[in-house]
Design a protein that fits this description.
By secondary structure, this protein is mostly helical. The protein has two helices and no strands. Helix 1 runs antiparallel to helix 2. The radius of gyration is 15 Å and the shape is elongated. The protein starts with 16 loop residues before the first helix and ends with a helix.
């Protein structure tokens, strides 16, 4: 699942949505481990990572068909 904005001067690859979610999840996970008082960030990071992995696998499955 990627979002494309139609602009005539845009060049280069479009970053997939699942990759952006994966990066955000990894950052939240690292911040959650670094700050002990914010254990909520750990669980949020794990949830975002799982969702991004599922989206990535579903996207790859659709690309092969």
């Amino acid at each position: 699942m990627t979002f494309r904005v139609v602009t005539p001067d845009r060049k280069g690859p479009i970053v997939p949505t699942w990759l952006i979610i994966l990066i955000i999840g990894a950052v939240l996970l690292v911040l959650g481990v670094a700050v002990e008082a914010a254990q909520f960030l750990i669980w949020l990071g794990i949830a975002v990572l799982v969702v991004s992995l599922i989206l990535g696998l579903v996207g790859r499955g659709k690309a092969r068909v």
